[in-house]
Automatic annotation (TrEMBL):
Residues 316-356, 381-402 are annotated as: Disordered. InterPro entries: TIR_dom, Toll_tir_struct_dom_sf, TPR-like_helical_dom_sf. It comes from Leptothrix cholodnii (strain ATCC 51168 / LMG 8142 / SP-6) (Leptothrix discophora (strain SP-6)). Residues 346-356 have a biased composition (Pro residues). This is TIR domain-containing protein. Transmembrane segments: none annotated. It comes from the Bacteria. The lineage of its organism: Bacteria, Pseudomonadati, Pseudomonadota, Betaproteobacteria, Burkholderiales.
C-alpha cells in the first residue's frame, strides 16, 4: 500500500525582493547586470532587484526602490572607481544631496537593510572620514571582492554569504551550476526536476523509499546547518581581525569554531594561519597554511598565492639549525588549544628562553655612525607623521623604574640599506592603511619576519604617535596603534632600549584614548617589558673551526666586549664550521647590531660575511652567533693580521 503522506516539497520560492543591487551607471552597470543575471539563476528572479528589469513604466525609480527596500533586503553596493569617485562641475557627486547613488544608500540604511559592499577589480574602500556623515558606516561593513578574473570564485563567496543571511536559493545544487565544466553550468535545475520526477514515481512503490528520502533530507539539512554556522563564524572572525579594534583572540576562537563545524574549510584555516603568524606562533601558522592549501575551495588566487608564499617562508625557517645556547625544550607540554578536528603537523621545537645575563655597565665606547646615505634614511621623518620627541622633554612614567640608557647608547648600530629601509617604511605605512586586508597582511609579514619588525618599529612608533595626537580619528589610526603596541610587546630588549623615548611618548599619548586600544594592543604588558629591558647587554657566541683561529677570535671578542657585548666564550666546533664565515642573528634580535658586527668582521677578515636570521629562535636577550669559516687563518690567502 502506498504511503498516504505527501512527498516533501521545498518551500515555494520567495516572491519578495530580497537582494537589491546598487551601482554607479558610469562604470558599474556591466558588472551589476552580470551579477544580477547570475544571482537570478541562483535565487530566482523575484528575489533579485535590478533597476533595468524591475522599474515599472510610468513610475519613479525612487518609489520602486523604496518598495523593494521596504522588504529589508540585502543591498549589494557595486564599489567601482566611480561609485564614490564620480565628479561633476560641483565636485564629488557622492557629496551632493541629489546624487542617486547617495540617495539609494541612505534609503537602504533608513529601512534597516543589510549593506554588503563588493569591491570591483583594483578598487579600494575609501576611509570613513572622506565620505559624507550619513555614509561613514559603509566602510565598516565587511566587503567582499567582485573581480572579472575571479568572477566565479567571488560569486560563490557572495552566494554563500547571502544564504547565510537567510536568502533561500532556488535549487539545492545551485553550487554545481557554477563549479561544473563549461557547457554544464546551467543544468542544475534540469537535473533536479528529473530527480523530483523519479521520487514521485518511486513513492508509489511503498513507504521504504519515503523513509530513506526523509532520512537523506534530514542529513542534508544538518550538513547545511553546519555549513551556515561555519560561514557565520568566519564572518565574525573577519569582523574581529579586520575591524577598527583588532581582536585577534576573538578572531582565533571564531575560526577554530568554523573548523569544528567544517574541518576541511580552507578559508577558515587560511585566516587562522594569518592570526597565528601575526602572533608569531610559527608552527601553528605553518600547519594551518598547509591545510588551507590542501583544501583550497573558497580561496581566490591572491589568497592561494599568499598562502604558498607564507608557507615557503615558514618551511624555510623550520629547516634552520638550532640556535646556539638555546636547546629545544624537552619534556614540556605544548600549550593546549581547542581541537580543530584535524591532525596537525608536529610542532617545530622552540628554543628554551635563555637566562638573563648579569647586568654590568660596559666601558665607554663611541658609537659607530652608519653610512651617510643610510643615516639620512634612518633619520628622515615619515611622511604625515610627527617625529618622536626627545627623551629630555618627557616626564618619567610612574610604572617605569629610572634606568640609565647608557648601555644601548654606547652599542654600535648600523642603519639598514636603502632598499631595506624602503621596505620597512612600506610595512609601517601598511599597518595604518585604510584597507583592513592591507593592515592584516603587514601584521602577518611582521609576525613571520621578526627581524624586519625591528626595523619597522621606529617608523611605526612615529606614525602611531602622530595618530594618537590626532585622537585616532580613523579606523586605520586605531588599528595601526594596536599593531604598533604589539610590535613593542614583541621587540627585543635592545630594540626597546633604543626606542625608549618614543615608546614612553606614545604611552603618554595613548593614555587619553579609549580602553579598547590599550587592551588589544597589550599596552601594560609592553611597558612592563620595556621596564624589564633595563640595560641588558647583547650576547655573542663565537664558534671557531680550529685553534689556529683562537687568536683572531680572542681579539674579536675583546673588541665586542669593549663595544658593550657579552661574549660568554669561544667554542671550537671543528668540522661543523661552515666553509665561509657566517653571522647569525637569533629571532627578533636587533638587526642594527647585527649589521654593525658584519661590518666589523668584514673589515677584519677582508672577506664578505653572510648574515642569516634564525627566525624560530626566541632568545630572552639579543643574541648573535659568529661562525668563523674553515679557511680563516688556515689558508694562505685567508691570513688577516689578527690571526697572528
Amino acid at each position: 500500500m502506498a504511503d498516504p503522506r505527501p512527498a516533501p516539497d521545498r518551500p515555494a520560492p520567495s516572491t519578495r525582493k530580497a537582494i537589491f543591487i546598487s551601482y554607479r551607471s558610469a562604470d558599474g552597470k556591466k558588472d551589476a547586470a552580470r551579477l544580477a543575471e547570475d544571482l537570478r539563476d541562483i535565487f530566482g528572479a523575484p528575489q533579485v532587484f535590478f533597476d533595468k528589469h524591475d522599474l515599472q513604466g510610468g513610475s519613479s525609480w525612487r518609489e520602486q526602490i523604496g518598495q523593494a527596500l521596504g522588504q529589508q533586503p540585502v543591498v549589494l553596493l557595486i564599489i567601482s572607481e566611480q561609485f564614490f569617485g564620480a565628479r561633476n562641475e560641483q565636485g564629488l557627486r557622492i557629496d551632493q544631496p541629489d546624487d542617486p547613488v547617495r540617495m539609494e544608500v541612505i534609503d537602504s540604511m533608513r529601512v534597516g537593510a543589510r549593506l554588503l559592499p563588493l569591491l570591483c577589480e583594483g578598487v579600494r574602500m575609501p576611509s570613513s572620514a572622506s565620505l559624507p556623515v550619513e555614509l561613514r558606516s559603509v566602510p565598516e561593513a565587511h566587503a567582499l571582492k567582485l573581480r572579472t578574473e575571479d568572477w566565479r570564485a567571488d560569486l560563490l563567496k557572495l552566494a554563500d554569504r547571502l544564504v547565510a543571511l537567510g536568502i533561500a536559493p532556488l535549487d539545492d545544487d545551485w553550487r554545481e551550476q557554477f563549479t561544473a565544466p563549461p557547457g554544464t553550468a546551467r543544468r542544475g535545475r534540469l537535473r533536479q526536476s528529473l530527480g523530483v520526477a523519479a521520487v514521485l514515481l518511486a513513492l508509489g512503490g511503498g513507504g521504504a523509499y519515503w523513509f530513506h528520502t526523509e532520512q537523506l533530507q534530514r542529513e542534508a539539512a544538518a550538513v547545511e546547518a553546519r555549513r551556515l554556522r561555519a560561514l557565520q563564524h568566519v564572518s565574525d572572525g573577519l569582523a574581529a581581525d579586520h575591524g577598527k579594534d583588532v581582536n585577534l583572540e576573538l578572531a582565533r576562537r571564531k575560526y577554530l569554531a568554523a573548523i569544528e563545524e567544517l574541518p576541511d574549510y580552507g578559508p577558515a584555516h587560511y585566516y587562522l594561519a594569518q592570526v597565528y603568524a601575526t602572533q608569531t606562533l610559527r608552527a601553528d601558522a605553518l600547519g594551518h597554511y598547509r591545510t588551507a592549501l590542501a583544501h583550497p575551495n573558497g580561496l581566490d588566487r591572491a589568497q592561494l598565492a599568499d598562502a604558498r608564499s607564507r608557507l615557503a617562508a615558514l618551511e624555510s625557517s623550520a629547516a634552520e639549525p638550532e640556535a646556539v645556547g638555546a636547546p629545544p625544550i624537552v619534556g614540556s607540554a605544548a600549550p593546549t588549544r581547542p581541537s580543530t578536528g584535524q591532525v596537525q603537523p608536529a610542532p617545530v621545537p622552540r628554543p628554551a628562553p635563555m637566562p638573563a645575563p648579569v647586568v654590568r655597565p660596559p666601558p665607554a665606547v663611541v658609537a659607530a655612525a652608519p653610512d651617510a646615505s643610510d643615516k639620512a634614511l634612518l633619520d628622515a621623518p615619515v611622511a604625515g607623521a610627527a617625529p618622536p620627541p626627545r627623551a629630555t622633554s618627557l616626564p618619567r612614567l610612574p610604572m617605569t623604574d629610572p634606568q640609565p640608557t647608557q648601555a644601548v647608547d654606547l652599542v654600535h648600530r648600523v642603519a639598514p640599506l636603502p632598499d631595506r629601509q624602503r621596505q620597512a617604511q612600506a610595512q609601517a605605512a601598511a599597518l595604518f592603511a585604510d584597507d583592513p586586508a592591507e593592515r592584516l597582511a603587514a601584521a602577518t609579514t611582521l609576525g613571520v619576519e621578526q627581524n624586519l619588525a625591528a626595523d619597522v618599529l621606529p617608523l611605526a612608533l612615529a606614525r602611531a604617535l602622530a595618530a594618537a595626537q590626532r585622537q585616532a580619528d580613523k579606523d586605520g589610526d586605531r588599528a595601526g596603534l594596536i599593531a604598533t603596541w604589539r610590535l613593542v610587546g614583541q621587540a627585543s630588549p635592545l630594540s626597546l632600549q633604543a626606542e625608549r623615548a618614543a615608546i614612553e611618548a606614545l604611552f603618554q599619548a595613548t593614555g587619553p584614548l579609549d580602553t579598547m586600544i590599550k587592551l588589544q594592543g597589550g599596552v601594560i604588558g609592553a611597558m612592563e617589558k620595556l621596564r624589564a629591558a633595563g640595560d641588558l647587554r647583547p650576547r655573542v657566541y663565537i664558534q671557531i673551526a680550529s685553534n689556529a683561529q683562537r687568536a683572531f677570535a680572542t681579539r674579536l671578542a675583546s673588541r665586542l666586549e669593549r663595544a658593550g657585548y657579552d661574549v660568554p666564550g669561544i667554542e671550537n666546533i671543528g668540522a661543523k664550521a661552515p666553509r665561509q664565515t657566517d653571522l647569525r642573528a637569533q629571532g627578533a634580535s636587533n638587526p642594527g647590531l647585527a649589521r654593525w658586527m658584519r661590518k666589523v668582521i668584514t673589515e677584519t677578515t677582508g672577506a664578505p660575511v653572510a648574515l642569516r636570521v634564525l627566525q624560530r629562535a626566541q632568545p630572552a636577550i639579543d643574541t648573535y652567533e659568529i661562525w668563523l669559516g674553515q679557511d680563516l687563518c688556515v689558508a694562505a690567502d685567508a691570513q688577516p693580521s689578527d690571526c697572528r
